[in-house]
Automatic annotation (TrEMBL):
This is Photolyase/cryptochrome alpha/beta domain-containing protein. The record marks W318, W371, W394 as: Electron transfer via tryptophanyl radical. Keywords: Chromophore, FAD, Flavoprotein. The keyword Hydrolase does not apply. InterPro entries: Crypto/Photolyase_FAD-like_sf (IPR036134), Crypto/Photolyase_N_sf (IPR036155), Cryptochr/Photolyase_FAD-bd (IPR005101), Cryptochrome/DNA_photolyase_1 (IPR002081), Cryptochrome_pln (IPR014134), DNA_photolyase_1_CS_C (IPR018394), DNA_photolyase_N (IPR006050), Rossmann-like_a/b/a_fold (IPR014729). Binds 1 FAD per subunit. It comes from Kalanchoe fedtschenkoi (Lavender scallops). Belongs to the DNA photolyase class-1 family. FAD binds at Y229, T241, S242, L243, L244, S245, Y284, D384, A385, D386. Residues 5-134 form the Photolyase/cryptochrome alpha/beta domain. Its cofactor is (6R)-5,10-methylene-5,6,7,8-tetrahydrofolate; FAD. It holds the Pfam family FAD_binding_7. Residues 583-611 have a biased composition (Polar residues). One of its GO terms (biological process) is circadian regulation of gene expression.
Length: 639
């Protein structure tokens, strides 16, 4: 029909109809053609793991039913090229516009930018919206225009900004844009292989993917569990946290809705002078802030996908030992709390945030394994695998962030076990070979008398491994690695000063990615794009304006003194609070599944490579460019 607005709504990780800005805008303008495009080739090394694909498949099935009931069925397309598929949809329905909601990970940013450019070249207007964050990454900078590199400063700035209330109600009816396109069913997308179905069937006993299930999960948490959150979140095992992270990752739940629901409860608790409720609400709002911050870092510092935010960590001598990596993955390190966590992850695709911190810290601090190996394994195995949150979590644990763990911090798994699993219930659940160990020995069986081990049926080195590395040896290795890092850094700086060129390698990779300065390009004159449209970082030469970085002072460890734990916290926010907010929220669910993993070839150990560029942080952020105008092709992103 002449003059009719026909809009392609491209769904990605925004699988809901409530508070979906792209869908709402399309519904207001005229007829809509909802489409989900699955392009495995473009996922690359971050192809979703088995449990993550199971969730995606079930979420898409529910979204399809909802959109069909509203009058506009969801089309599924499996393709080798997303742009080609979108262009075919445009031609099939005579679309006048394409809309979608923003994604912020580096892979999606590059893809979305290229697609917008190509559609603009063929005169197809594109609009994108914020459906995933409270604040866009390009809206939050300090007084000098710099991107924040510490969470406290970032979140304080966010809380000083105005926030729009949730106003996007689900559409009552959708007018479907007519047209014929070669589509498939959700089964034919191939998200779930035949060999995986038997294992995946068990996931449904504990989880209900989909946007309507997400609403129920949010209501249950707000009404039943939020008040006790500040106490229960520290208990490993059991439903001790919100269980909302997979719903948030797939966009089945609006983050603005979650924030406002918790904020309303906070106001109520303050009015009632309910100290516990107030503390719990504040902690959960801060957890939401960490999710925001993960996307903020990925947008403003896209190199964090591969490189540490702190420059000196590129000199760290990681130990890419495949045997140790395998023992860590399989839960055979000899440290019960670590092994229990890794076996739960292997079996269920799920981990409590506290256990995520413990196992990842053991990976990088005890075994000195490259943090990117651990991040990729989490991506492949977690039900709520979220690239931005995983990047933030692993960089935080490995000392790669200015406000993360001190690089020399070495936490004792024995003390962690006594603190978070004092009765050993969690360990017994996932390590049946230790089920009969007394609680006072279960977190350090290597110290137990022989009679105790014999009574419990434990034979160290046979049915349960001896510690893969002694704590004293791990402390010594970490100290040595830190001094080696300092020496390499000093040599590199000296060589740069006197004109010599001493090559220093990052031994965790066999290729080098330069760390660019990330700024936002100046808006092109005459652009008519909306102020809400997607913006994109461009890479510019670095100026000598380094991130203030922390240096480790001395190696310390938690002493095994019952009832007395040292305070590892630096001045500022509680590290315990930050650690428990790794992926917005997570906890434990009973399932039994299996998974597999292989290290990407490009991430295998190698001592080849070039010295990284002396680049350390984002230059002042200039006036931003809006990625796509309604009738104007955006400027090309720099290399």
């Amino acid at each position: 029909m002449d003059g009719e607005t026909r809009t392609i709504v491209w769904f990605r990780r925004d699988l809901r109809i409530e508070d979906n800005p792209a869908l709402a805008a399309a519904a207001r303008d005229g007829s809509v053609f909802p489409v989900y495009i699955w392009c495995p080739k473009e996922e690359g090394q971050f192809f979703p793991g088995r449990v993550s694909r199971w969730w995606l498949k079930n979420s898409l099935a529910q979204l399809e039913k909802s959109l069909t009931s509203l009058g506009a069925p969801l089309a599924f397309i499996k393709t080798q090229d997303t742009f080609t598929a979108l262009l075919e949809c445009v031609k099939a329905v005579g679309a006048t516009k394409v809309v979608f909601n923003h994604l912020y990970d580096p892979v999606s940013l590059v893809r979305d930018h290229e697609i917008k450019q190509k559609l603009a070249e063929v005169a197809i207007p594109v609009r994108s919206y914020n459906g995933d964050l409270l604040y866009e990454p390009w809206e939050v900078y300090d007084e000098k225009g710099h991107a924040f590199t510490t969470f406290d400063a970032y979140w304080q700035k966010c809380m000083s900004l105005p926030m729009e209330p949730v106003a996007q109600f689900p559409p009552w009816h959708l007018v479907s844009a007519t047209g014929t396109i070669q589509s498939c069913s959700v089964e034919e997308l191939g998200l779930e292989h035949e060999s995986e179905k038997s294992s995946n069937a068990l996931l449904g006993r504990g989880w209900s993917p989909g946007w309507s299930s997400a609403d129920k999960a949010l209501s249950d948490f707000i009404e039943l569990h939020l008040h006790e959150y500040s106490k229960s979140r520290l208990k490993v095992g059991g439903n001790s946290t919100s269980l909302l992270s997979p719903y948030l990752h797939f966009g089945e739940l609006s983050i603005r809705k979650v924030f406002q629901c918790v904020q309303l409860k906070h106001i109520l608790y303050v009015k009632e002078e309910n100290i516990l409720g107030k503390e719990s609400a504040n902690l959960y709002l801060k957890a939401i802030g960490f999710r925001e911050y993960s996307r903020y870092l990925c947008f403003n510092f896209p190199f964090t996908l591969e490189q540490p935010l702190l420059r000196n960590l590129k000199f760290f001598p990681w130990n890419p030992n495949m045997d140790r990596f395998k023992a860590w993955r399989q839960g055979r390190t000899g440290y019960p709390l670590v092994d229990a966590g890794m076996r739960e992850l292997w079996a269920t695709g799920w981990l409590h945030n506290r256990i995520r911190v413990i196992v990842s810290s053991f990976c990088v601090k005890y075994l000195l394994l490259p943090w990117r190996w651990g991040m990729k394994y989490f991506w492949d195995t977690l039900l709520d695998a979220d690239l931005e949150s995983d990047i933030l979590g692993w960089q935080y644990i490995s000392g790669s962030l200015p406000d993360g763990h001190e690089l020399d911090r070495l936490d004792n798994p024995e003390i962690q076990g006594a603190k978070y699993d004092p009765e050993g219930e969690y360990v017994r659940q996932w390590l049946p070979e230790l089920a009969r160990m007394p609680s006072n020995w279960i977190h350090h069986p290597w110290n137990a008398p022989l009679t105790v081990l014999q009574s419990a049926g434990v034979e160290l080195g046979l049915n349960y491994p001896k510690p893969i590395i002694e704590i004293d040896e791990a402390r010594e290795s970490l100290t040595k690695a830190i001094f080696t890092m300092w020496e390499r850094e000093s040599s590199a700086r000296a060589g740069s000063t006197n004109g010599t060129s001493e090559e220093v390698h990052d031994n965790s990779e066999n290729f080098e990615l330069p760390i660019p300065t990330v700024i936002l390009s100046v808006k092109a004159a005459g652009s008519t794009a909306s102020s809400r449209d997607q913006r994109v970082p461009s890479f510019q030469p670095v100026k000598n304006n380094p991130i203030s970085r922390k240096r480790s002072k001395n190696i310390y460890d938690e002493e095994a003194i019952p009832g007395k734990l040292p305070n590892h916290n630096k001045a500022g926010p509680s590290k315990e609070d930050e650690e428990d907010s790794w992926t917005a929220e997570s906890s434990y669910k009973k399932q039994a599944t299996s998974s597999s993993f292989s290290v990407p070839h490009s991430w295998m150990s190698s001592s080849t490579g070039n010295l990284l560029q002396d680049c350390e942080h984002s230059d002042p952020v200039q006036a931003s460019e809006e990625l796509n105008a309604t009738d104007q092709c955006p400027s090309k992103m720099g290399e």
